[in-house]
Amino acid sequence: MTANDVSRPTDAELEILKVLWERGTCTVRDVFEVLSAARETGYTTTLKLLQIMFEKGLVSRDESQKSHVYKARAKQQATQRMLVTDLLTRAFGGSTEKLVVQALAAKKASKEELAEIRRLLNELEGDEQ
User: 74, CA 20 to 30 Å: which among 2, 21, 80, 97?
Assistant: First the structure.
C-alpha cells in the first residue's frame, strides 16, 4: 500500500497517523491517551476518526480481539512525500525551487540540517552527471 492508494489525511488524521507511526499498532484507547496528553479530545472523537480513517484506507484494523487494533497502512515517508507533492503542485506550481526557498525562509535551518541538505544536493548533482 502506498500513500497514492489512499486519500490525503486531514490534520486530525495526520495527528493519529503520527501516533501509529511512532508506536506501530494501537488500540483506540492507546491513541486517545497520547492525543489527550497534548490537547483536549474525546475518546469517542478518536474512535470516530479511526473508523473514518479505516473507511478511507488510511489505517488497517485487526478485529480479532475485543479491542480493535489499528495500524497505519502507508509508511510515514510515503505519506510525507504525497503531502509534499500535493503542496508542490497546488501552492508552488510544481516549482521545487520555490518550495525549498519558502521552506528555508519560514524556519531557520540548523547547521546539521543545512549539511544534510548540501549532502543531498551533491548526491543529486552526482546523479545528473
Answer: 97
